[in-house]
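Same chain as my last thread, 55 residues:
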Amino acid sequence: MNLGGSELIIILIIVLVLFGGAKLPKLARSLGQAQKEFKEGMNDEESDASPDDVG
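reply #2:
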């Protein structure tokens, strides 16, 4: 799925219309926090499944 510049601009305009300018920073902050927590969870899961625990 390749998105060009014009497609990204259209998506940003739609997001701006749907959520409004005041809610965008809050939305972006919550998305960033969710991504950070997801990565931390994946790292924790990888460390739990280490081969040292087998045996």
